[in-house]
């Protein structure tokens, strides 16, 4: 006897039950555990489809019962897969347990062991009770080598938990939410995930766990994707991205109202994009890389901010376009006090070709001093002696350094370099390459300080060899047409006052 | 819907009721099944798709053209999929899920199966049976036993006179 009452518009043919079982499993995949399990009551053919779908998806949000009953329901389902020798590819449990007892902790540990033996691909364990408390995570989670997707929320990760960690050679997605970790652990986790593509971090904070958006994000190596919610970066004060390969373009559409420190190093994700940073309160921007990025800033309202640019100097037969690109970058940060370092160089052409090409920069730029950017400090260690003159020419074509800094390590190479630099700056012999900027150079002085830069003393070239290792020499330049600055300020940029200010801000933000 | 490029990158697909469709190769290879045929060099003439009827294939090709015209922007693709499926009845969805499975098109498969699942969400057993025309072949005792076994899943379901 048919019990079904047919409704108008309902299907008279049971098309869904005729679908192949693997398609029905794909359909049930999208359902919560209770919705999926309930299909077992539909008809005999539906009796066991729910427990062959490749995922378990539990949440205690709608569960009527206590924690132990909930854990027991999860446990029964998992055992059912075990008994049928079926694998669970994706395991998803969300709960809001205020406090675990020992039995519950060992139950969770047992699940992880079973899932590990099933080669689980996706593991999601969230414990987000209304009253914030975090439980220690069973460390066995870090033994599941097959994981592709790991999502943890509301747990403490101790150093000991991480020690069991295997290499997650398949893990592409890691999400940590309200996870309390000790310093250095995040780096450790990331170092075990060579293929990580998606890093989704919410409320990850080592000090404050309850903040709705993080204050500090430090990521080294890997690909990053941030939650783009308008509020996500609301509280972010410190953002450091090192070795990030995925495109950072989406940061252009984000607002960083609290951001003070931004450090980007070796991020391939900056290649080929125009990054726009809306961080009105920034006080420090650091960049380190072997290419020149395109980065611009929205209006900055902080009274003073600092840019610290470290680059590999590209010396090729197209060096002039490298300098022009650098000019674009310097222009876009010209409201800040710029410190420019050529830390490394790459030499990809013969020296004559490079010299000739660099000298083209001043022609292209027309020696237009109004277009030039003031650079507080320029540093160019390790550059080949024979190219110093050309590099200076290139640099002065695109900016006006107030100080040129060099290192004294006691080697002959440094002495020669400084000698060479000093001669170029003081003798100002007009060669056939017209050094237009010589005309603007009014005064050159030399000072020296110890490594800590506590005190700068005037010195001369002939006195330099008397100094021991690890001194810094600074050539102080005075050129016409610099932007106005307060005569009461120290003549040269005081690095100590900078580091003091940075430290103060760091303390404030802590 | 034919891609009138006039270049050899147009494929001809044939449904099981002998309808012919032209489609740009770049769109058609969203189907791993078709892509494999192209890569194996079997796509020179007409590609017969024995498990898909003309009506469904027309729909799938509309989808192929629509989604491949969208550049790599997951959000836009998702909103296209939502719009594409919004007016489809279950009969059509069932045909499409079979076609997506046969053609090995994971993005369409996911979208259609999720759409079907959506209909079942938080619905009572009786409602789902009526909606899909599923005949209950349990005896009352058997049904009561299955319900008892999974008692916890009957909380928080939309009320229904059958349940």
Basic shape of chain A: elongated
Percent strand of chain A equals 25-35%
If you compute it from the alpha carbons, what radius of gyration of chain A comes out, rounded to the nearest whole angstrom?
31 Å
Structural domains of chain B: how many:
2
Please identify which CATH superfamily of the largest domain in chain B we are dealing with.
Potassium Channel Kv1.1, Chain A
Quaternary structure? heterodimer
Distance between the termini of chain B: 47 Å
Structural class of chain A: alpha/beta
**Largest sheet geometry of chain A:** 11 strands, mixed
Strand order of the largest sheet of chain A: 10-11-12-14-16-17-19-21-24-22-23
Largest interface: A-B, 45 and 40 residues
What is the succession of H and E elements of chain B? EEHHEHHHHHH
- Count of extended strands of chain B: 3
Ends apart, CA distance between termini of chain A: 73 Å
The CATH topology of the largest domain in chain B is given as Potassium Channel Kv1.1, Chain A
Rounded average pLDDT of chain A: 75
Rough shape of chain B?
elongated
Protein name (chain A): F-box domain-containing protein
Domain F-box (chain A): 13-61
Keywords (chain B): Ubl conjugation pathway
GO molecular function (chain B): cullin family protein binding
Explained architecture:
Chain A has 11 helices and 24 strands. By secondary structure, chain A is α/β, with parallel strands linked by helices. Chain A is elongated and about 95 Å long. In chain A, α3 links the parallel β1 and β2 (90-95). In chain A, the strands form 5 sheets. In chain A, strands 10-11-12-14-16-17-19-21-24-22-23 form an 11-stranded mixed β-sheet. In chain A, strands 1-2-3-5-7-9 form a 6-stranded parallel β-sheet, with helices on one face. Mean pLDDT of chain A is 75; it is low at 1-11, 203-212 and 479-503. Chain A starts with 20 loop residues before the first helix and ends with a helix. Chain B is mainly alpha-helical and 163 residues long. Chain B has helices at residues 25-28, 32-39, 54-68, 74-86, 90-103, 106-120, 125-132, 140-149, and strands spanning 10-14, 20-24, 46-48. Chain B has a 3-stranded mixed β-sheet with strand order 2-1-3. In chain B, α3 (54-68) crosses α5. Mean pLDDT of chain B is 87; it is low at 1-6. The chains are: A alpha/beta (510), B mainly alpha (163). The A-B interface holds A 2-7, 10-17, 19-20, 22-23, 26-35, 37-47, 62-65, 69, 73 and B 90-91, 94, 97-98, 101, 109-110, 113-114, 116-118, 120-123, 125, 128-138, 143, 146-147, 149-150, 152-157.
């Amino acid at each position: 006897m048919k019990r079904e009452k047919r409704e108008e518009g309902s299907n008279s043919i049971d098309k869904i039950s005729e679908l192949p079982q693997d398609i029905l499993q794909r359909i049930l995949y999208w359902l919560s555990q209770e919705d999926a399990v309930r299909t077992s009551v539909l008809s005999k053919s539906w009796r066991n489809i729910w427990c062959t779908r490749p995922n378990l998806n539990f949440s205690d949000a709608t569960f009527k019962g206590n924690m132990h009953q909930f854990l027991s329901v999860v446990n029964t389902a998992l055992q059912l897969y075990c008994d049928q020798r079926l694998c669970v590819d994706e395991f998803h449990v969300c709960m809001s347990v205020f406090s675990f007892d020992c039995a519950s902790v060992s139950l969770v540990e047992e699940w992880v062991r079973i899932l590990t033996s099933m080669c689980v691909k996706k593991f999601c364990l969230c414990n987000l009770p209304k009253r914030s408390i975090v439980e220690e995570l069973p460390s066995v989670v870090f033994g599941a080598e097959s994981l592709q997707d790991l999502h943890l929320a509301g747990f403490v990760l101790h150093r000991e938990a991480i020690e069991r960690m295997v290499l997650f050679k398949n893990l592409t997605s890691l999400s940590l939410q309200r996870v309390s970790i000790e310093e250095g652990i995040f780096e450790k986790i990331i170092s075990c995930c060579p293929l990580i593509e998606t890093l989704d971090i919410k409320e990850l904070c080592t000090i404050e766990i309850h903040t709705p958006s993080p204050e500090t994000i430090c990521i080294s190596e890997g690909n990053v994707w941030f939650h783009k919610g308008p509020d996500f970066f609301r509280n972010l004060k410190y953002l450091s991205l090192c070795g990030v390969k995925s495109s950072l373009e989406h940061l252009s559409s984000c607002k960083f109202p609290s951001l003070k420190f931004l450090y980007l190093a070796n991020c391939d994700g900056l290649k080929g994009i125009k990054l726009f940073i809306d961080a009105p309160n920034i006080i420090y921007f650091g960049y380190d890389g072997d290419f020149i990025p395109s980065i611009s800033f929205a209006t900055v309202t902080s009274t003073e901010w600092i840019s610290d640019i470290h680059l590999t100097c590209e010396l090729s037969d197209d060096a002039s376009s490298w300098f022009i690109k650098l000019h674009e970058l310097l222009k876009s940060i010209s409201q800040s006090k710029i410190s420019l370092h050529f830390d490394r160089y790459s030499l990809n052409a013969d020296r004559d070709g490079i010299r000739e090409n660099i000298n083209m920069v001043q022609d292209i730029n027309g020696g237009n001093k109004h277009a030039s950017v003031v650079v507080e400090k320029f540093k160019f260690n390790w550059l080949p002696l024979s190219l110093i003159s050309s590099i200076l020419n290139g640099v002065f074509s695109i900016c006006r350094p107030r100080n040129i800094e060099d290192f004294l390590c006691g080697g002959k190479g440094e002495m020669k370099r400084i000698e060479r630099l000093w001669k170029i700056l003081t003798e100002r012999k007009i060669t056939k390459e017209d050094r237009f900027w010589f005309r603007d150079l009014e005064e050159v002085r030399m000072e020296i300080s110890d490594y800590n830069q506590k005190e700068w003393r005037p010195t001369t070239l002939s006195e330099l060899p008397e100094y021991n290792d690890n001194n810094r020499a600074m050539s102080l330049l005075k050129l016409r047409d610099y932007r106005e600055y307060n005569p009461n300020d120290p003549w040269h940029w005081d690095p100590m006052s900078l580091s003091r200010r940075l430290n103060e801000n760091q303390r404030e933000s802590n | 819907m034919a891609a009138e490029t006039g270049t050899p990158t147009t494929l001809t697909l044939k449904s099981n009721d002998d309808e012919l469709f032209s489609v740009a190769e770049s769109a058609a290879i969203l189907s791993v099944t078709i892509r494999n045929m192209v890569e194996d060099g079997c796509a020179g003439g007409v590609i017969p798709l024995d498990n898909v009827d003309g009506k469904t294939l027309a729909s799938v090709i509309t989808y192929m053209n629509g989604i491949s015209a969208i550049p790599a922007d997951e959000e836009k693709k998702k909103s296209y999929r939502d719009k594409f499926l919004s007016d489809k009845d279950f009969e059509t969805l069932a045909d499409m899920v079979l076609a997506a499975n046969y053609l090995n098109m994971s993005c369409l498969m996911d979208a259609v199966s999720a759409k079907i699942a959506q209909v079942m969400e938080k619905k009572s057993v009786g409602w789902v049976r009526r909606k899909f025309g599923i005949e209950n072949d349990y005896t009352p005792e058997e049904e009561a036993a299955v319900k008892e076994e999974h008692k916890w899943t009957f909380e928080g379901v939309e009320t229904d006179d059958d349940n």
